[in-house]
C-alpha cells in the first residue's frame, strides 16, 4: 500500500474515533521541536538525548531488527547505529492527528545519510509512523516509533 493510501486510511480511522481531531498549530510546533531535538542528537551521536525523547516504556520497531522496548533497549540499539559513522537525519512531518488530550500520531518521512567509518556511504529514505504521548511534565514524547524504507530489499 502506498504512503498516501496509508495516510488516507489512517486518517479516516482516526477521524472516525470519538475525540480525534487534526492537531492544533501548537501541538504541531511541539512535535516539530521534538523532532529537531532528535535530529540534532542524531547528528551529534548523542544516544541519551534521543532516548530522552521517548517515553519510559516506548516501543521502537525498526525494519529487519527485533523491537526495542524501554530506554535501555532503545539506547542499546542506537549505540551501534550511531557508532557506525557520521550521520545526518532529516525528519519531516506530513500529518499530525490528536487522538485525545494525551495521545497523538504523526505520519512523516525521513532521509538518512551515514558516512561510514570505512569510507562508504549509506543513504536511506522512507516513511514514519509515530505515536506521541503527553507526559505529566507536559512534554510530548515518542511512545511508538516505526518506519520503513522506500527502497525494498535494502
Outline the structure in words:
This protein has four helices and seven strands, in the order H-E-H-H-E-E-H-E-E-E-E. The chain is an alpha+beta fold and 154 residues long. It has a single domain (3-147), classed as Nuclear Transport Factor 2, Chain: A. It is globular, with a radius of gyration of 16 Å. The protein starts with a helix and ends in a 5-residue tail after the last strand. 18% of the residues are buried. The mean pLDDT is 87.
Structural key phrases:
single chain; 154 residues; alpha+beta; Nuclear Transport Factor 2, Chain: A; seven-stranded mixed sheet; 4 helices; 7 strands; 34% helix
Number of structural domains: 1
Helix-strand pattern, N to C?
A: HEHHEEHEEEE
CATH top level class name: Alpha Beta
**Regions with little confidence, pLDDT below 50 for 5+ residues:** none
Taking all Cα atoms into account, the compactness measure Rg is 16 Å
CATH architecture: Roll
Query: What value does the average pLDDT take?
Result: 87
Major sheet details: 7 strands, mixed
Helix-strand category:
alpha+beta
The shape is: globular
Beta-strand residue fraction: 35-45%
Q: How would you summarize the topology of this molecule?
A:
Layout: H1 3-16, E1 21-22, H2 25-44, H3 47-51, E2 54-61, E3 68-69, H4 70-83, E4 85-100, E5 103-116, E6 121-134, E7 140-149
Parallel strand pairs: 2-7
Antiparallel strand pairs: 1-4, 2-3, 4-5, 5-6, 6-7
Amino acid at each position: 500500500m502506498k504512503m498516501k493510501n496509508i495516510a488516507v486510511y489512517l486518517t479516516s480511522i482516526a477521524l472516525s474515533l470519538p475525540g480525534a481531531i487534526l492537531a492544533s498549530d501548537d501541538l504541531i510546533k511541539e512535535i516539530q521541536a521534538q523532532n529537531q531535538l532528535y535530529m540534532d542528537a542524531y547528528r551529534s551521536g548523542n544516544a541519551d538525548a534521543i532516548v530522552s525523547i521517548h517515553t519510559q516504556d516506548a516501543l521502537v520497531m525498526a525494519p529487519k531488527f527485533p523491537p526495542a522496548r524501554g530506554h535501555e533497549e532503545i539506547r542499546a540499539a542506537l549505540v551501534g547505529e550511531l557508532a557506525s559513522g557520521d550521520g545526518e537525519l532529516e525528519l519531516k512531518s506530513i500529518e499530525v492527528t490528536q487522538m485525545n488530550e494525551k495521545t497523538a500520531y504523526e505520519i512523516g518521512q525521513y532521509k538518512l545519510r551515514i558516512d561510514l567509518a570505512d569510507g562508504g556511504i549509506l543513504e536511506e529514505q522512507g516513511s514514519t509512523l509515530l505515536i506521541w504521548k503527553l507526559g505529566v511534565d507536559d512534554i510530548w514524547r515518542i511512545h511508538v516509533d516505526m518506519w520503513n524504507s522506500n527502497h525494498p530489499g535494502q
